[in-house]
Design a protein that fits this description.
alpha/beta, binds inosinic acid, binds magnesium ion
């Protein structure tokens, strides 16, 4: 067996209604905090693209939402994190003096988020917050705060709703656990 064939979809861990309910809660928290103000929401490509698209639409017109994206790649294979993050695409917006919210799909070891927090806070924004859909507490290696948190999940590899395994399964509306093919 080679490539992505060694993994298969096992079962749905979070279905699309559960996800949408949480996205709407997170958007309400953001709305309460930023009502009448500008906020630049920065999605981390490609994993957060779908979450970001749903999230901004739930925030509504009372917040002046601007959208931007960055792309990072972490060295190593696709199911473990090396902690070395390479910025492949930077945001287009000037971050200085802005309210920033970084939107991420999942925090695993926390190394990516810790790296990005340091990078963005060095740019002297007015504020910097993080919004992360999934967290795997059991895998945490560094302590870094999530301001708007979706779900805590067990130490399982998950795909769907933007999350991939080797580029696969991002387009699924639910979040699935994947398993090794037996
Ligand atoms: P961290 O630096 O270890 O926190 O890794 C974060 C990145 O690893 C995420 O942005 C994902 O790209 C990837 N990742 C970690 N766990 C999973 C998973 O279960 N499914 C898909 N991607 C994951
Ligand atoms: Mg990823």
């Amino acid at each position: 067996m080679s490539g992505t064939d060694e993994y298969v979809l096992d079962y749905i861990m979070l279905n699309k209604d559960t996800i949408q309910g949480k996205v709407s809660e997170l958007a309400s928290s953001i709305r309460r905090e930023y009502e009448g103000r500008e906020v630049v929401m920065i999605g981390v490509l490609k994993g957060a693209a779908i979450f970001m698209a749903d999230l901004v639409r739930c925030v509504g017109p009372s917040v002046d939402v601007k959208m931007d994206f960055i792309a990072v790649s972490s060295y190593g294979n696709s199911s473990t994190s090396s902690g070395i993050v390479k910025l492949v695409k930077d945001m287009d917006t000037y971050a200085g003096g802005k309210n920033l919210i970084l939107v991420e799909d999942i925090m695993d070891t926390g190394l990516t988020l810790a790296y990005l927090r340091e990078m963005f806070t060095a740019r002297a924004p007015k504020s910097f917050r993080t919004c992360v859909l999934l967290e795997k507490p059991a895998r945490k290696k560094v302590e870094t705060a999530i301001d708007y948190k979706g779900f805590a999940v067990d130490d399982e590899f998950v795909v769907g709703y933007g999350l991939d395994y080797a580029g696969k399964w991002r387009h699924l509306p639910d979040i699935w656990r994947v398993a090794k093919r037996v």
